[in-house]
Amino acid sequence: MKTSRERILTTHVGSLPRPDELIQLNRARQAGEAQDERFYEERLAASVADVVQRQQAAGIDVPNDGEYGKAMGSRINYGAWWSYSFQRLGGLKLGTEIFRLPPRRSEPGEVRLTSFSDRRDRALFAAAYADPDAGVSTMPRGGAGMKLPVCTGPLTYTGQAAIAADIAHLKAALASAGIAEGFMTSIAPSSASRIGNEHYASDEQFLYACADAMREEYRAIIDAGLVLQLDDPALAENWDMINPAPSVEAYRKFSAIRVEALNHALRGLPPERIRFHLCWGSWHGPHVTDIPMRDIVDLMLSVKCQGYSFEAGNARHEHEWKLWQEVRLPEDKILIPGVVSHATNVVEHPELVAERILRFAGTVGRERVIAGTDCGLGGRVHPEIAWAKLQALAQGAALASRQLWH
Fold it and tell me: What is the C-alpha separation between 261 and 36, in angstroms, rounded?
């Protein structure tokens, strides 16, 4: 994995705005309309080539495919990073409830997730979440939300052709742009397992089944010479989905099992080719029930990877940069803090971006910081705003680099 040896490098979390043509093609595919698959793959490949070139032009050093292989049928979509796995795992049956957890099996006395619609943040701000004009809803206007599946049989990985196509499109785009390193996202077991389970005897068995299945995708990405990014908002976000709130100690035990399952999936894979993304969810809500970073930072650092990406640029978590004055970052690790946010339409000033970068560089060292985003920008903010934020990210990194190296 590239590090900031001569200047502050830039990257982002993954999702970028999809072109309208690709959204329309995906919408038709999701509706079951007959399509020319060859034409679809050609348009997907062309779209990936274009988005890599746009990232390069914006000043992004470590780009990706925009997650274009993870289908979005509308401009506003908070769940494509997760729902793509429903089509790549065998043993699942698609449910009918939207954002409500189907039946699960748990050991007696275990901390249990409730559902996305029963979050404590939602309960505290029920009127705001129910108001379609408040800006906090994750449901697209005029369209259905994400339907969660149920595991009804042995879990297997069936996405070999899909991940091979994603890899081929990104590698071709990187080669065409003359870019040496790119990353590709994949869902972590903890987040993948937040669906119904009617087959495995316990949630822990189901969790490890997810780990074993998704490991095949992790290996494919790494074997292709790409950097693997593990998307796992569940590590922080699950806290808000346990109602009533558990003790921090109970939640840490609950989460430690999930980190162990992830490390099980990563066994034997090179940590220097892996980065981990943690966030508190990408919806534009109050987030007053977010668990503090302090309570889970050691769990994050126990993931066997080199880089750690996390929210550090929004109004709820920006102050937590101070934590790194107390927490020792292992010598072989790097931080990828978010210095521009998906949570506001305001485009950050490059000088503010530079200030945020300098805080982290001053605590862990300039070579151990890569400037990133809080979360994915695609499907969360307007495309014009998303690209302006990436440009501000690169401009801020250049300002910070001038202060740190000259």
Answer: 39
